[in-house]
Design a protein that fits this description.
3-stranded antiparallel sheet, mainly alpha, 9 helices, rod-shaped, 3 domains, Helix Hairpins
Length: about 375
């Protein structure tokens, strides 16, 4: 038996696929190290040997619909007024938060997760606007309260001064009115007197008596006001002053009550604003203009962002089954984000969610008021 590895012990040639020698009678190759099929000193196996076939690379089957990489939003997409960057941040978050497997409710789960992101940004913006409005109303109510209280305090603290002001106005007006009525009554009496003389009838006589009576009454009022100003000044002053003080107090009380309501409203608006701003980290709470990025970049609120980024970065190196699964998850997440960005009315009424499983993988009981979708439980707080 020579050095030919396919020279069997019986002198017959062994097949390249036959096992190495030492197996007993039959066509066995000489026992040698792997990779020495042709040349005893070579490491290259025979191309038809099992060693060579096992070492040969098998071309992977590629799904024609499976992209080489995951496509994010671009400037060519309809972003619903949001920036491309913030939509992509939201997309990565949804991608990382939804179930890792293709569960039946994956589309609903993606929409629910995306809804919490958009809803949180909306409630923060709305609560801030409500707070600003409430504070403006409080400032206005405080101004009106101060003005009304100043009028009341001024009137009640300086009675003599304001009585004199009030009585002069009222007395002059009352005297002018009484004089006017007296003059009108005098003219009416003279007219009735002339008619009575001309006609000398019973009817004209009665009209004359009536006119004379009205003249006397008007004259009495006018002469009394004119001759006794001190008496009437005192009466008018007390009446008008008391009425003015009462009106000022009523207005002050009403303004105080309105200010109290405005203060309560401002406190409630402040509490709601602070509650929703807890969705943000300490460095973001004071930003005047917020984006979806500010919402998802809060690790205590969304762990899905770094998870989704990890999936995205490792996609090209995944095996085909894993790529297929994650590509479908990516498409589902992207559709949900796009739809809700352009159609706010389609957002689910959720702003909170937690995993439906405990850290040990055990399924948790569903709490009252929550909805279980996929691997998460959703609710509005």
């Amino acid at each position: 038996m020579g050095i030919d590895p396919y020279d069997g012990w019986s002198g017959r040639r062994a097949h390249p696929n036959s096992p190495l020698g030492g197996g007993g009678p039959g066509a066995f190759r000489n026992p040698r190290s792997l990779g020495t099929d042709l040349d005893p000193l070579s490491d290259i196996p025979h191309p038809s040997s099992r060693t060579a076939l096992a070492q040969a690379a098998v071309p992977a089957k590629v799904d024609a619909d499976l992209p080489a990489s995951l496509e994010q939003f671009t400037s060519n997409d309809d972003t619903g007024g949001y920036s491309v960057d913030e939509l992509n941040q939201a997309l990565l978050t949804v991608f990382g938060e939804i179930s890792p497997t293709l569960v039946p409710d994956l589309e609903k789960e993606a929409r629910a997760v995306a809804s919490t992101i958009f809803n949180r940004l909306t409630v923060i913006e709305e609560s801030r606007a409500a707070y600003d409005k409430a504070m403006a109303e409080l400032d206005e109510a405080l101004r009106e309260r101060r003005e009304a209280n100043q009028v009341y305090v001024e009137l009640s603290s300086h009675s003599s001064k304001h009585k004199q002001e009030l009585v002069k106005q009222e007395y002059d007006a009352a005297l002018t009115e009484a004089k006017k009525k007296f003059e009108e009554a005098t003219a009416a009496f003279k007219s009735a007197e002339k008619n009575a003389k001309d006609t000398k009838s019973e009817g004209t006589s009665k009209e004359l008596d009536k006119a004379q009576s009205a003249l006397r009454e008007a004259e009495t009022v006018y002469k009394d006001l004119e001759k006794h100003p001190t008496k009437h000044v005192s009466e008018l002053a007390n009446q008008d002053y008391d009425a003015a003080v009462a009106a000022a107090k009523m207005k002050s009380d009403a303004a105080t009550q309105a200010w109290g309501k405005a203060e309560t409203k401002a406190k409630d608006a402040s509490s709601l604003k602070m509650k929703y701003e807890d969705y943000l980290d300490a460095n973001t709470k004071h930003k005047e203009s917020l984006t979806l990025t500010d919402i998802v970049n809060q690790p205590s609120q969304y762990t899905g962002y770094p998870t989704g980024q990890g999936y995205f970065d490792s996609y090209e190196g995944m095996k085909e089954p894993e790529q297929k699964r994650n590509f479908q998850r990516w498409k589902t997440a992207k559709i949900a984000v796009s739809q809700l960005a352009n159609n706010p009315g389609q957002r689910d009424h959720y702003d909170q969610f937690v995993s439906s499983k405990a850290p040990n993988g055990k399924l948790l009981p569903l709490k009252k008021g929550r909805t279980r979708i996929g691997g998460n439980d959703f609710w509005w707080e």
